[in-house]
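Recap from last week: sequence in, structure out.
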Amino acid sequence: MAEYQHTKFQELEKQLLLSPPPFRRRHADRLEQLITSLDPETDYSYEFIYFRATGFRPAGASLQSYRGSELHTDLLHLLHRISQSAPTEAAEVPEPVLSIEQVAAACNVAQRTVFRWHRKGLVSRTYVFPDGRRRTGVRKSALDQFSAANKALVERSGRFSRLSEAEREEILRQARTLDVQGGPSRTAAAAQIAGRVGRAKETIRLALSHARGEHPHQPLFHSPPGRLSEDQRMGIYRAYKSGQPLATLCERFRRSRPSIHRIVNEVRARLLLADASAPGRFIADEAFTCEEADKKVLPAGAAGSDAGSYAGNLPATGPLSPAQERELFRRYNYLKYKAAQLKAKLNPKRYVAARLLDEIEALLAAARTVKQRLEEINRPLVEDVARKHAGRLVGLRGLVAEGSATLRQAIDAFDYRRSDRFASFLRWALMRTFARTLPEEHY
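Predicted structure tokens:
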């Protein structure tokens, strides 16, 4: 329900909620009597409303008054809140209390229609039914009063929801046809049939459910497919990535289009979280947490799912100036930082948005591109240091391979915030690697 239109009733709710549960149940009874007795065209003072709801006079005089039509929404909301905090036993009410399902059945309407009637004045509150469950209920007298005051509305709603025998037969005929053609689920079939016969999908679904109950040994639809195994989920993902049409996957695995997309996104999320080769560790920077970090660190025009725009115009291979080197390393670490922040939101057990996965993959792809450029720029230094250590016992090719692995690790470990150049850091790392690799007698 909506919040209060008048603040006075919000204050009244706070006062009533402080009373013990028996008093709250009594307040709910008084509120229900007040709501059913309101005249929409009459003005009521707040003092009168307070007295009718509580049995007491308010402490301070109030000159405020409200039209009866304006009070309905606020008083219904107040009744809902008070009865929810201290529900009444339905068995203790001296008249029948109908659940929403029973009201819908009695008036031959859908349950959502009954909820719409609440907004039009049908008085309801929370009860504890004989089965021990708390549910919204309507007194028989309240339903009779609403039906009498809104006779045309109730009759129109009933006519809309009632299906003729001919309409029912046509719905079942179309359902059997759909079952022969491909065996869709009951929900999918209801959506298709609703568009053809001009009825609400819920009405069609209920008609199919009733038919299933009347003829349990003649099911209209195949049993729904069971839970997919891990191999089947991976098969759907690989087939989707290879370009197989979505319609083919739906037919092969007996799943709807949204279900196929959900499975693909779930597998994508798990692979992203389990990918050890993806750039992960990053050097944090204060600039990463500021509001305009993207503008300060990323190139102009960087888009949310475009790896090329994230990478931007990278410098050509060759020596970098100190400013260029710092800017390139900062961008590389910021891309990894941003990807890590988004990966923290991934939960394969829940719905995963494709847009979020696209952005994470774009960030990681851009980070790899920047790292590759840093490797290309610094590979001559690796070859130079390796050439000085190569000899009869260890060849140049093996040392270059070792040095390339060290270069990749050094790019991830280099703290660009310090004054040292990366070349000095890399040379020191290569010397340590070669000292462990080369035999001692080589030196």
